[in-house]
Amino acid sequence: MNIDMMKMLIQRLAKERFYEIIFVLLMVHRAADFMDGVFKTLLLDMILAGWKGKARGKNQLIQDITDLLT
Predict the structure, then answer these.
(1) How many CB atoms lie within 10 A of CB 14?
(2) What distance in Å separates the CA atoms of residue 25 and residue 29, rounded to the nearest whole number?
(3) pLDDT at residue 57 above 80?
(4) DSSP track, 1-66
(5) Span 55-61, mean pLDDT?
(6) What's the rounded Cα separation, in Å, for the pair 7 and 29?
(7) Each residue of 16-56: pLDDT tens digit?
């Protein structure tokens, strides 16, 4: 698995609304070098959004993940 493949798979799965499979994909490849920064940044973003009272939908979360895979 590489970063480009992960990004492409997430985008395709999101298009088909296979959100549970995206979660599985992220968990299966969580030890990949490129995933460490993604999880840390997402966690911080989610904490900040909650702190500010801003709700985040699935589509925004998917967009955030694919943006971090650059």
Answers:
(1) 19
(2) 6
(3) no
(4) --HHHHHHHHHHHHHTT-HHHHHHHHHHTTTSTTHHHHHHHHHHHHHHHHHHT----HHHHHHHHH
(5) 75
(6) 12
(7) 999 999 999 999 999 999 898 888 888 888 878 777 777 67
CA distances to 3, 15, 30, 36 from 42, rounded to whole Å, are 16, 20, 13, 10
What's the number of CA atoms in the CB half-sphere (13 Å) around residue 57?
A: 4
How far apart, in Å, are the Cα atoms of 69 and each of 16, 37, 51, 59? 20, 9, 25, 16
Cα 63-69-70 angle, rounded to 5 deg: 110
